Structure formats: structure tokens, C-alpha cells
Amino acid sequence: MSFDQQYVWYASFGSNMNRDRFLCYIRGGSPAGSTRVEVGCRDASLPVAESFFTIPYPLYFAKEAAGWQSMGVAFIGLNQNPVNPTISKKYLITAEQFVDVVKQENNGIDFHLDLSEVKKAGSKVFRHSWYGNLVYLGEEQGYPIFTFTAPWDITETYTRKPSTAYLSTIVNGAKEHYTDEDIFTYFINKPGIKGEYSTEELFDIISNKGDSPC
């Protein structure tokens, strides 16, 4: 398979694992369960490829996102932990689209982004914000894989329970590849989930698809 060299993989681990929700960032729109309306990318072309991927950093939920009922959202830690990886859905999109997605995740702020610098350094903090830390995760099919998270680690913040709508959006994306049992085992001990959702509540979220996210 041959693609333009300006394509990059975006590895999502939060609500963007749900393809329909992610397309709100590409085409614009508001995902179900969120009060926020995304502006979309300058280039609204669909991803040219997508697949599941494992990120060797741990997942946790923190902060209070106004668009998701002022409850927690997903982040990955800054220290690799191969025995506690994060499941991800990655999309092959243009570098321009990736920059536009990052801008939308940072409240539309304009900034200069050199992905070659991120690749060389392994990570780069371009803004001290929730998703102001770009992380390089290797390559696949000759294209670099990037994601973004906070510039602080879990020990530097507080965990926070995610809303049912937010968690359901992630779950519904994961269901494309994983069984309900896999998803339950994955989430049950995650910081922000453990002790916040009962076994029964988590089972209920996983067993019900809910509404389309966009």
C-alpha cells in the first residue's frame, strides 16, 4: 500500500477510539454526550487506513472536562509500562489533519508544530495544557505514529471518574476489536475507574452500545 509521505498515524486512546466520534474532529460536529462542538479540519477527507494498536504507556482518567459533564477524561502516563499498556485505535491521516486535531484538542489555539522534532526527541511539550505533549510511538508501513497527552504524569495530578457518556464512547470504539470480557478486564483497575464504578455499573456500560457519538 502506498501513501503520500505527508501522512501520519494518529494513535487515539480516549473517546477518539470511537470512529464516529473521531470524525467529529475531521468533519466538525458534536459527539453524543458532549456539549462541545468541534470545528473540524481544513481537509475533511476521511482517514485512508485505520487499525488497533497497543501503546506501552498506562491509561488513567483525570481532570474535569466541561464538555463531558465536568468529569474525567483519558490520559496516558509518561513512563513506559509494557505490562500495563493502553489499547488504541490509530488512523492514517495527513500531517495537516493531525495538527488540526491537536489544535481542536487544545481549544483551537494556533501554534507551530514540527513533527520531525517530536520524532527525533521522542516527545515534545509545545504547550502546558491537558493535551500539550506530543509523543512519538514508532512507525508502521513507513509512517510515524504520534499521540498526545498531558505534560505531567499521574503522580502530579488527581484522578477523576469519567462520565458514563465518555466511557461509553471509548467502549463502543473498543468493541470493534475486543470482546466485552476483554474490555471489562482492561478498564476495571484503571485509575479513575477503580473504586468509582462498581462491577455492575461497568458491565452495564460495556453491554449497552448507547447512541451514535456524532
Number of domains in the coordinates? 1
Largest sheet: number of strands, sense, barrel closure: 6 strands, mixed
Structural class: alpha+beta
CATH homology group: Gamma-glutamyl cyclotransferase-like
N→C terminal distance: 30 Å
What's the gyration radius in Å?
Answer: 16 Å
- The multimeric state of the shown protein is single chain
- Taking strands numbered 1, 2, ... along the chain, how are they ordered across the largest sheet? 2-5-1-8-7-6
Instruction: Quickly give the CATH architecture.
Output: Roll
What's the total count of β strands? 8
Give the overall pLDDT as a whole number.
91
Helicity, as a percent range = 25-40%
What layout of secondary structure does this protein have?
Elements lengths: L6 E6 L6 H9 L21 E7 L3 E7 L5 E6 L9 E9 H11 L9 H7 L1 E3 L7 E8 L2 E7 L14 H11 L5 H8 L11 H9 L7
Parallel strand pairs: 1-8
Antiparallel strand pairs: 1-5, 2-5, 3-4, 6-7, 7-8
Helix pairs in contact: 5-6
Overall description:
- The protein has 214 residues and is α+β, with helices and mostly antiparallel strands.
- The chain has a single domain, classed as Gamma-glutamyl cyclotransferase-like (Hypothetical upf0131 protein ytfp, Roll).
- The chain has 6 helices and 8 strands, in the order E-H-E-E-E-E-H-H-E-E-E-H-H-H.
- The protein has helices spanning 19-27, 95-105, 115-121, 164-174, 180-187, 199-207; strands spanning 7-12, 49-55, 59-65, 71-76, 86-94, 123-125, 133-140, 143-149.
- The strands form 2 sheets. The chain has a 6-stranded mixed sheet with strand order 2-5-1-8-7-6.
- Strand 3 and strand 4 (71-76) form a beta hairpin.
- The longest helix is centred in the middle third of the chain and has 11 residues, at 95-105.
- The two termini are 30 Å apart.
- Mean pLDDT is 91; it is low at 209-214.
